[in-house]
Design goal:
Length: about 280
């Protein structure tokens, strides 16, 4: 049955895009979960939705034809910068920056969707993902983002690792914590925007957290947790895309359900001797 994904061009783009997303989403998700910033993915996904709705609105009202994915990406990056700015405005309550931006994203989404005369099939695909929505241009853009994210993580791995576990120590030791964190959150924004074609706005945060949650139950160290997160992410995406195609349902839901099953299996396996306690001890 998988031969269909290599026979039809649009399915090939979807499949290969899913492979890329299955790598970069859990890759950054590992740092996000360790830093206890999981809700950032939710906030930025809703800001991305506002950008997508804005793009659809511009197309509806002014006949401006460009992919709403690009406007969603711009909104997501701007939202990530605003989160970082608000974290320093509310230094004693930095977590409040996330619900502020999330609320703004939801508010603007409602307004733009209403002005664009409500939901349509394109917006539905952005909400829940689609196996037929990825074009050649989208694939090439996501490929560039994937390469960029992977290279940045490789170059700044030590800095990101230090910042994830002790931000104060990182700042004291001379690390440019503010700049590194801003770079990281902007990368997260790009990955979220890129993942929306496959997973959908409402479910993209799950792909960044569920594989990591499963890996935490099995891994013996941070690097192993990162590798397992990517493996679980890839498995979820591949099974989810194939199941979504043959069941004729949005792939986002099947990807998330697959991730939950993997997580439950990891929790069950954890009770047999390999546990997250070892991860905490090694870190």
């Amino acid at each position: 049955m998988i031969t269909d994904f290599f026979q039809y061009e649009f399915l090939r783009f979807t499949f290969f895009t899913g492979i890329l997303i299955g790598i970069i989403a859990p890759l950054l998700g590992t740092f996000i979960v360790v830093r206890r910033l999981s809700l950032i993915a939710d906030a930025l996904s809703h800001v991305t939705l506002a950008g997508i709705a804005f793009g659809l609105m511009m197309e509806k009202l002014f006949l401006i034809t460009f992919s709403p994915l690009y406007s969603g990406m711009v909104f997501s990056v701007v939202g990530s910068v605003l989160i970082e700015k608000l974290r320093y405005v509310y230094k004693a309550y930095q977590e409040i920056a996330i619900p502020i931006i999330l609320s703004g994203g939801v508010g603007f989404s409602v307004i733009f969707i209403a002005v664009a005369n409500g939901f349509n099939n394109d917006l539905f695909n952005y909400l829940f993902g689609s196996v037929s929505a990825v074009s050649r241009t989208d694939f090439l853009m996501i490929l560039c983002i994937s390469i960029f994210v992977t290279v940045i993580v490789a170059l700044f791995y030590k800095e990101l690792f230090t910042l994830s576990f002790d931000e104060e120590h990182a700042a004291i030791s001379g690390l440019h914590a503010k700049g590194i964190h801003l770079l990281f959150i902007m990368l997260t924004a790009l990955v979220i925007a890129a993942s929306i074609r496959i997973v959908g706005v409402l479910l993209v945060s799950a792909l960044m957290t569920l594989p990591v949650a499963a890996a935490m139950r099995l891994a013996k160290g941070f690097k192993q947790m990162m590798v397992l997160s990517i493996l679980f992410g890839e498995l979820s995406v591949i099974i989810g895309i194939i199941a979504g195609y043959y069941l004729n349902i949005p792939p986002g839901g099947t990807i998330v359900v697959t991730s939950i099953i993997i997580l439950l299996l990891a929790i069950a396996k954890n009770k047999w001797g390999i546990g997250s306690k070892k991860v905490r001890e090694s870190l």
